[in-house]
């Protein structure tokens, strides 16, 4: 039996449907919403609608944007011959934050994952092939996550792009800067040895 | 510098303003909203507005309801001579779930807490006094939480209601059922001894 008004129960359920939010947290959040001034609650609802309405994928790189072409693709100062392929928009931010990269991006919005029923057609691979087929791209840097699914996706794409004669590279594996060898796992150490460079 | 569209940043901020949601979680939730079908996102926004619009305090007991008088106050089967005073709507549910109590409630929506600048006028105490002054209430059961603020609030209210000649009681303190003496704290053990009853 439910002791709360149905509209409050409904709001609680909505919060509980979000990832990482349990029933108790959802109730706490719903109560918090009730305690907000009317205009703040309305602003919250509007923020949801507005984000859904205005945010979509850049027509070139598939990164999230509220205009037709994102600020990276439309910048005249970026090297348009290099494209870094990442699995999601958060990876774009991580790379941008390093201020080391001046090329363009391609956001796949996922990785190939048979266990989760995600195939090559479910992520933005054909958009990447179209870009490469246009001919102005000289290097593709695969920057999917260094896990099984990220690796599989990177390999699949590199095979797919080989016929176009474009240079395909992969981010280097190794010991993270600032970490300790003591805590590095075997696979990372092995890759770090394999990829060793001369001083 | 922000790398995401402003509407997405705005939605992230809204989530981050909720209690217990940090910046990373807020971003994850905002991305989840973007991944929802349009109608689900719209339903989420509408749930917020609808809960804010329809949920308010019962005109008698101040519990949350979407009608003028809540389902407990409007039930003809409840004992209207007994009122249980609790700090918030969640306590009403806890007591209802025990199926032991058949009287009415009064929800204070807070406790007196000088440190948080909550005085007697900031919670629903005068509504309780008005109910008691009406004369049909015979017993008030103080059921605020057994902490300093709950105790202070209970004492303040009982002093305030004394002139009306109503019987005022307090929930029993003691060892929680199913727990072990080994883990009971000193204060609880002391109260359990003080409140000991004959077999």
Written overview of the protein:
The first copy, chain A, has 7 helices and 6 strands, in the order αααβββαβαβαβα. Chain A is 41% helix and 13% strand. The first copy, chain A, is of the alpha/beta class and 199 residues long. Chain A folds into 2 domains: 6-54, Helicase, Ruva Protein, domain 3; 64-198, Dna Topoisomerase Vi A Subunit, Chain: A, domain 2, CATH 3.40.1360. The model of chain A has no long low-confidence stretch (mean pLDDT 90). The longest helix of chain A is centred in the N-terminal third of the chain and has 17 residues, at 38-54. At the A-B interface, helix 1, helix 2, helix 3, strand 2 and helix 4 of A face helix 1, helix 2, helix 3, strand 2 and helix 4 of B.
The helix/strand series of chain A, from N terminus to C terminus, equals HHHEEEHEHEHEH
Compute the number of structural domains of chain A. Answer: 2
Major sheet: arrangement of strands of chain A: 4-3-5-6
- The overall average pLDDT of chain A, rounded, is 90
What oligomeric arrangement do these chains adopt?
A: homodimer
Enumerate how many helices of chain A there are, as a single number. 7
**What is the highest CATH level, the class of the largest domain in chain A?**
Alpha Beta
SS-based structural class of chain A?
alpha/beta
Under CATH, the topology of the largest domain in chain A is which? Dna Topoisomerase Vi A Subunit, Chain: A, domain 2
Shape of chain A: globular
CATH-derived architecture of the largest domain in chain A:
3-Layer(aba) Sandwich
Largest sheet of chain A: 4 strands, parallel
How many β strands of chain A by DSSP?
Answer: 6
How far apart the termini of chain A lie comes to 71 Å
Which chain pair shows the most residues in contact?
A-B, 47 and 47 residues
Query: What portion of residues of chain A belong to β-strands?
Result: 5-15%
Q: Gyration radius of chain A, to the nearest Å?
A: 22 Å
